[in-house]
Amino acid sequence: MSEVVSVKDVSKTYRLGTQTVTALADVCLTVHGGEFMAVAGPSGSGKTTLLNLIGCLDTPTSGEIAIDGEAITRLTAGRRADLRARKLGFIFQTFNLIPVLTAWENVEYPLLIHRRGGDVAGRVRAALAQVGLGERTRHRPSELSGGQQQRVAIARALVGEPSLVLADEPTANLDSATGREIVDLMRRLNRERGTTFVFSTHDPRIMSAADRVVEISDGRLR
Ligand code: ADP
Ligand code: MG
Question: What is the tens place of the pLDDT at every residue in 39-51?
């Protein structure tokens, strides 16, 4: 199977005044194409830091990260942004939709800013149909429930056909039944499309949906 993510000996330290905080220490991880993988750990264990580094949103203090064989740690900021646009999709705990845009426009937005040509409307329609939003595509986020907002965010993450979707605690702001629906939806899309998913959680019921769970504590994988 292809290696979608390779993390080698990655550490991340933050400097806070005179103190240094070690958010990640010597992390090694390989994720293969088509996996549905969970990173599990308590608050403060380094989950967001790890996902942000894999997602080219931040750079490690030391170590190497490659996406689809491309070493992201050596790219310029511009090339990292380009790789992010071509290959990655993001889902966040707080949904992070643009409040003034409708569900449809939120999903369309990444295609427009990255100037993806072709049948934009057809792609938006297909992405929204896959997440089961029904008739609510002309509504703004404030008119949607949390679960519906996260469905829109999943459609937005997938509309560019990324090789990897990173979901940082995607169910943490949802009640447990809705959280389960969201993880089941991600699971179905992973199976149907073959898209690789890495998601973080501290909820054992959500973890159990994963093919593989890696546990993190105090910045170290166990
Ligand atoms: P999690 O997502 O598992 O809650 P984080 O990756 O957010 O964990 O944080 C890991 C550790 O790094 C924590 O101790 C946190 O306080 C610290 N940390 C995260 N981001 C920063 C930052 N920008 N500046 C300083 N410390 C940070
Ligand atoms: Mg976090």
Answer: 999 999 999 999 9
Ligand 1 centroid, distance to 184 Cα (angstroms): 28
pLDDT tens sequence across 72-99: 988 999 999 999 999 999 999 999 999 9
Write down how long the chain is: 222
**Proximal ligand: closest to the CA of 43:** 1
CA dihedral 195, 152, 199, 130 (to 10 degrees): -30
Q: Give dist(CA 180, CA 178) in Å, integer.
A: 5
Q: Are 53 and 59 in contact (CB under 8 A)?
A: yes
Instruction: Output the ligand 1 site: residues, CB below 6 A.
Output: 14, 16, 21, 23, 41, 43-49
Residue found by looking up tokens 């511009």 in the block: 78
pTM for this one?
0.95
H or E element: which one contains 54?
Answer: helix 47-54
For residue 44, the ligand closest to its alpha carbon is: 1
Neighbours of 17 (CB within 10 A): 5
All domains in the chain, ordered by first residue: 35-63+74-221 (3.40.50.300)
pLDDT, tens digit, 9 for 90 and up, residues 163-192 = 999 999 999 999 999 999 999 999 999 999
